[in-house]
Amino acid sequence: MESFSLILAIVVVTALAFDFTNGFHDTANAMATTISTGALKPKVAVAMSAVLNLVGAFLSVEVANTISKGLVDETGIRPEVIFAALVGAILWNLLTWLVGLPSSSSHALMGGLIGATIASAGTGAVHGDVLVTKVLLPAVAAPIVAGVAAMFATRLSYTLGRKADGKAAEKGYRVGQIASAGLVSLAHGTNDAQKTMGIITLALVAGGVVAPDSDPPTWVILSAGLAIALGTYLGGWRIIRTMGKGLTDLQPQQGFAAQTSAATVILASSHLGFSLSTTHSVSGSVMGAGLGRKGGVVRWSTATRMFVAWGLTLPAAALVGALAEYVTGFGDWGTAVVAVFLVASSAAIWKVSRREVVDHSNVNEVEEPPGVVTTAIAVVTPPPASVPAADGLSATIAAPAPAPVAATPEPAAPPAAV
């Protein structure tokens, strides 16, 4: 086996950087509802999620094997291809984090890998059957299954708790929500941390460090778990705000139902080796929980923006990955250009994010923009006229009432005689 080359070291570091962005990008999946309902304080929630993500990274390698052995033909992959794939995934993660949209880090990674692989070795190097059965179909099915399960679980929770003592029931649901949020964090570690393990293992195979069809080495599992845990602890507060308050307003019963449904779907998919998006599962369960409560609503303007981001994730990351692979094909200087572009773009996105800081102190403060119908009505409806009053305040003047029809004047009486 060959020793570590410079490009291979760059790929491993970049993969861990992606894993870090995956952590703070997907913190909302585990803890957004717990924070929004007040079950846990923000800092405590992200610390708990970070520890459980690290533990979950050691529970399974099925998803890692799907990435490293199943999605693309590993025999024709160069380390530069993996690097280009990671560039596409990282930039998409940072852009969607900047605008607060919970898109899929998993699909960003796979989109970048597919685009870079096609640019390097052609479409034949991508295993279409694995892409459809273990990536695309779960992407469609996961939010639907989790949403329907959360909706019925919410209705069941309210039905069973109708006669229970209000404060006691609410306290019980908060405890259950904390437990289910911990389960989602554990499931996130078993699914998303493994994607980075798989991509690093694929790079090691491409660089000749490990044999083909090898499982991830122990140091890869540990480093990937630590990277995603650190990113989770820092917290992607922008996406937590969108997931916890931007989609719907959740009560403890709804938060418990949403988290439990999402955790069940994620753990089942990890066991089957499906490269599932935890973002899709949790978002679907949150919307289902919002619809499950009588009088509950889902803010479809936010949901629509989120759906658009989901649809763009794979092709956008694939396009950036393909372009990055094209530039790295010019040799070492091309790889250096792509690396500088990645660092400069990441720094620019971070600088823009400082214009409006979102952190644990204001994560639950959100104002939903008006919908299309509300905006249209406001445009066509003229505002009432107002004039400044004597005290300097503005007074609204009602429209004048129509003047009554004047009656025919009677003849004046003759003047009295003097």
From TrEMBL:
Tagged with keyword Phosphoprotein: no
Membrane topology: Multi-pass membrane protein
Keyword Transmembrane: yes
Keywords, sorted A to Z: Membrane, Phosphate transport, Transmembrane, Transmembrane helix, Transport
InterPro entries: Phos_transporter
Domain of life of the native organism: Bacteria
UniProt-listed Pfam families: PHO4
Gene Ontology BP annotations: phosphate ion transmembrane transport
Cell compartments where the protein resides: Membrane
GO molecular function, one term: phosphate transmembrane transporter activity
Transmembrane segments: 44-61, 81-101, 107-128, 135-153, 219-240, 307-327, 333-350
A GO CC term assigned to this protein in UniProt: membrane
Family from the record: Belongs to the inorganic phosphate transporter (PiT) (TC 2.A.20) family.
Protein name according to UniProt: Phosphate transporter
